[in-house]
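Subject: Protein record for review, amino acid sequence with backbone structure tokens
Why sent: The fold of this protein is of interest and is recorded here as tokens.
Notation: Tokens come from a learned vocabulary of local backbone shapes, not from coordinates.
Attached in line: The record itself begins immediately under this heading.
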Amino acid sequence: MWKKKIFLFAISFIISFSCDEKNVVSGGFSFLVTGNVQGELYPKKMLRGSLGGLARRSTYINKARMNISPIILDAGNLFADNANSAALIKCYNEIGYDAFNVGVEDLSIKDDIKRIEKLADFPFISSNILDTKSGKLAFKPYVIIKKNGFKIGIIGLSNNSKHNTKYTITDPVSAGQKMLKTLAKKTRYQAVMFNGSYEQSIQLKETLKEADFIFVSGHKEIPRKTRTYGDGAFIYNVGEYGQSIVSIKINIGHVDSSLKDISMLLEREKFIDETLELLHGGASISVEEMYSGNYNMTERIKRIQWELQLAREELEKTVNTIEFDFIPLSDFINEDEKIKSIINEANIELN
């Protein structure tokens, strides 16, 4: 009998181990990330039209959910002194945020950040903000999220450039290294939400070897698709005032292969396709036949087609891909009526 029990225990152990998320070898997951909202509930007026607003953001996220199940994050600097913090949290609860990184500016507002935290259905996280009085971490250091069989660890870090008597901000490098080392044993991929400048995030990338992604909320320029250089984490800034939302789609062919951002390659492929289509102009003969008597155009077409082939070959051989995009929340996006209602009710209460 005891041999049978040992055998059944062994089988159960093997099955449970094989089902562990760390043994999933392929699949995908995605992020939708905001930051630097600075208390903005409404769209911000621009020279032409407006951008942002929580009601538009909610509409976009709900539409995205029809095709994907994204991890929804805010990378920091959510609040401001002149903003209705409770209304922001109610909207974030309704939208379904998964985590918020407490930024330096969030500690400086008049509202008590710990009181605001109690209103949230999602965790406030930070791996390097301590309660000065107790010397302990003031917030949860990280969160682990499961998506499609993968475990993704997410930590929050802030720079230490501002003095605050109630909270102490420790070195983000040493705090990040320690926390990521812990998470690497529990999760397959690790993301850092960082409240600091883009230059500081580059320094972080060089030291936080375990990180796969860094989302930067202290850099206020418009997010752009650029080539990624060197090894280590992929860095994405998230803009400001909630005017846009950053989308990161990760497709894993096999977990043992490295990640590669193919956003620029896809842009290049699209541009070349459109150029060839423009040259062809919908003619009934091939583009080569159209320009057969024009040496310069023939050579140009050959070069374009060669570049297209190279781009497609590189895309085909890439096993684990990252597709980055940023979506301006423009006037073309309808406003979510439920979010508008929450904001309007909050304003009535204030008045």
In short: The chain has two domains: 26-258+318-350, 263-317. The longest strand covers residues 150-158. Residues 295-317 form the longest helix (23 residues). Residues 39 and 176 are 27 Å apart (CA to CA).
